[in-house]
């Protein structure tokens, strides 16, 4: 999420210094300017001095995730390549479950000689690629 996108969702936004703004907190109606916003080298920091609302709650009230406040960091294993946003574990497990079931049926058909191997080679390659990607997402999530 860009800082401009965040600021456009807030009310009574005013600059309060270099890379800093104040706005009305979306969690409550009292006190204009109680929400402090800071751009810290691409990381957006939020704090409400009135209600003490957590950044995740403030982000949720604006319709996005806490992770959206932080720009992807560089991948230490592949310099220059950003790390993508981590998927929620539930999504990864659901997708992995679906692809493993497909692979199971595919291997069973091949084992029983129901379908020639060449016919299912593309499906197997696609499933393998998706499963590999999902396993890497699980590794990143834990």
Can you walk me through this structure?
The chain is an alpha+beta fold and 142 residues long. The protein has two domains: 3-72, no CATH class; 86-141. It is built from four helices and six strands; from the N terminus they run αββββαββαα. It has helices at 3-8, 55-61, 89-111, 117-141; strands spanning 11-17, 20-24, 35-40, 43-48, 74-75, 78-82. The strands form two sheets. Strands 1-2-3-4 form a four-stranded antiparallel sheet. Strand 5 and strand 6 form a beta hairpin. Helix 3 packs antiparallel against helix 4. The radius of gyration is 23 Å and the shape is elongated. The model has no long low-confidence stretch (mean pLDDT 78).
SSE layout:
Layout: H1 3-8, E1 11-17, E2 20-24, E3 35-40, E4 43-48, H2 55-61, E5 74-75, E6 78-82, H3 89-111, H4 117-141
Name the poorly predicted regions: none
> How many structural units, i.e. domains?
2
The profile of the biggest β sheet is: 4 strands, antiparallel
Strand element count: 6
Keywords:
4-stranded antiparallel sheet, 142 residues, 4 helices, alpha+beta, elongated, 2 domains
Task: Give a brief rundown of this model.
This protein has 142 residues and is of the alpha+beta class. It contains four helices and six strands; from the N terminus they run H-E-E-E-E-H-E-E-H-H.
């Amino acid at each position: 999420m860009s800082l401009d996108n965040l600021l456009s969702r807030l009310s009574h936004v005013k600059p309060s210094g270099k890379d800093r703004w104040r706005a009305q907190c979306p969690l409550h109606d009292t006190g204009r300017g109680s929400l402090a916003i800071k751009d810290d080298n691409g990381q957006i920091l939020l704090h409400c001095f009135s209600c003490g609302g957590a950044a995740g709650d403030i982000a949720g009230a604006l319709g996005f995730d806490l992770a959206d406040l932080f720009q992807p960091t560089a991948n230490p294993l592949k310099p220059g390549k950003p790390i993508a946003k981590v998927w929620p574990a539930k999504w990864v497990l659901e997708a992995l479950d679906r692809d493993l079931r497909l692979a199971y049926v595919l291997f069973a058909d091949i084992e029983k000689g129901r379908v020639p191997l060449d016919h299912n080679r593309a499906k197997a390659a696609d499933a393998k690629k998706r499963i590999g990607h999902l396993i890497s997402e699980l590794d990143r999530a834990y």
